[in-house]
Amino acid sequence: MVRLIVKFMSIARQRAGTASVEFISSKDRLGDALNELVNSYKIADIILSEDGDVRPWARVLVNGRSQQFMGGLNAQLHDGDCIALIYPYTENF
């Protein structure tokens, strides 16, 4: 179990209804924790593909670093880690 700080950016913030939350995940691997998180806030469709990978235009940062450079979805999480979910597009045109 890990205690995470989660920051929602742009449309992820609009859809989650908050800018930041403390989230407790029962898993300590990024992919598993991310799955719990996006399903809890009903934003899986903008962050994850149908295969469970991070969508090419979405960004997942762990402590300010892209998950791509930290071992991807297999990255190990620790108490106090900060996850930022960024979806750079908006529904408002």
| CATH superfamily descriptor | Beta-grasp domain
Structural class: alpha+beta
* Beta-strand content bin: 25-35%
Total strand segments: 5
Secondary-structure element order, N to C:
EHEHHEEE
The biggest sheet, with number of strands, parallel, antiparallel or mixed sense and barrel status, is: 5 strands, mixed
* Shape field: globular
CATH domain class: Alpha Beta
Radius of gyration: 12 Å
Oligomer designation: single chain
Could you explain the architecture of this structure?
This protein has a 5-stranded mixed sheet with strand order 2-1-5-3-4. The longest helix is centred in the middle third of the chain and has 11 residues, at 30-40. Helix content is 24%, strand content 28%. By secondary structure, the protein is α+β, with helices and mostly antiparallel strands. The protein has helices at residues 10-16, 30-40, 44-47; strands spanning 2-9, 20-25, 59-62, 65-66, 82-87. It is built from 3 helices and 5 strands, in the order E-H-E-H-H-E-E-E. The protein is globular, with a radius of gyration of 12 Å. The mean pLDDT is 92. The protein has one domain: Roll (Ubiquitin-like (UB roll)), CATH 3.10.20. It starts with a strand and ends in a 6-residue tail after the last strand. Strand 3 (59-62) and strand 4 form a beta hairpin.
